[in-house]
Design a protein that fits this description.
ten-stranded mixed β-sheet; 13 helices; 390 residues
Length: 390
Amino acid sequence: MSRLPFHYAFRNLGRGRVRLIASLVGSTLVVLLVLASGGFVRGMQHTLTQREPLHANVMILGTGSEEGVERSQIDAAVEGIAAASIRGLKQRAGVVYASSEIHAALPLRLEAEDEADLPAVLRGVRPVALLVHPEVEITAGRMPRSGADELMVGSLAATRLGVPAERVAIGQALWFDDRPWTIVGQFSAPHTVMDAEIWVPLTDLQIATRRESTISCVVVTLDDAGFADVDLFAKSRLDLEITAIREAAYYASIASFYAPIRIMVLVTAALIALGGIFGGLNTMYAAFASRVREVGMLQALGYTRGAIVVSLVEESIFASACGALLAVAIGLALLDGIAVRFSMGAFALVLDPPVLLAGVGGGLVLGFVGAIPPAIRCLRLPIAEALRAS
């Protein structure tokens, strides 16, 4: 006899509401975990892996500081020397795409009398930084003016500081260097570390950090020039003690530093998913054990064991698929875009198509693997003994 019709498996789902609810809840929780883990890894990857627009940027920083630009100190005159010495840097209206910057991790305070320091990542910049970093878009307000104790915050700065978003709204003030700095602008730089930074005029941050004659790095954008030209410049100016590194390579090295964390997250998710599978096995064992007589009757009617197993697996996969789709809807509504703080700043969970497919695929695997062992055990009994089962 041929296989059982699909509507038989579908109709059986309604025969045990408790079992159906348990299957839906279990698969939904497992898929949500997969989505959260995948979104975490994808969000961190997107933030630390610079994409196409930044591939033409090269960082000139201090020798030996390739793994941490915050530790770099180079002469403030490097920008002018590099712009005059390297042919083929990108220009617009006579402005060379060369941005002197200070990268500093400094403690801030919401009020002068506060005792708790808030960890912040500050970047001292000049207006040319908006040309060198095209991902940055001012979404409200304006660039801070030099000498006016003003600053501009990224869209994830509140998460990095651990304060409500309204506390970094335009017009609010943050304290550092024993004086208030007024927030005059907000910017967005999606999927980059800059999104969690606070930008300050370069000269103001030089004064605040007592490093008037030095900067952290110079970021240049290539046009006709190649990386070899910048590298040759750095190697030929031994007196400046500088080195050149592609901006993409710099952030890729940082991403590799966090690789163990991403692996740990994935392994944790896999272990918990394995626990979900065992939970599903218990549910299916209990469900199929009460249907031994039904299975024996189907065999007596001529249905093969293979056809019965397929029907039971269809039933399990259908329930898990419903739970997976429910989890996707919940994940897109509640998890996508949630900001997470880490030492480099903050990033947002990313539930893109690969992550969603992984979640749905995990739900289907859960339904398949969770149904096979109970179905086989249910079919072990001889037909006569199965028909006598209570």
